[in-house]
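Q: Hi! First time doing this. I have a protein sequence and I read that you can turn it into a structure. Is that right? Here it is:
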Amino acid sequence: MMADMKQSILLGLGLQELTLLVEESGQPQYRAQQLFEAIYRQRVESAEQISTLSQEFRRTLVEKGFSVGLPAIDKKFVSVDGTVRYLMTFDDGESVEPSGSGR
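A: Yes, that's right. Below is the predicted 3D structure, encoded as C-alpha cells:
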C-alpha cells in the first residue's frame, strides 16, 4: 500500500512505458498516445490539464500520485554582461543549473 503513495513522474517515460501504464489502469491503449502528446508536444504542467483524457482517468492518475514532473525555476541569475542563468528544481527535490548554449 505504501508503494502507491510514492510520487511517479510521467516526464521521461516513453510510449511503451506509457502504454503499460494505461493498460494497467484498465484504459484503452490509445490513451498512451494521448498522454505522450500531452507531455511532450503540448507540454502540460499537470495530469489535470490533459483534456484529451477522461476526467475519471485524470483523477485516477492524480490519486495514484502521478505528476508530469516539469522542473520549477527556483532562482534566476542575471550577470552584468546580460547572461541569464536559472536554478531549476525537479519533483524529486534535486536541483540543477543547466549549462548554456556556449554563447
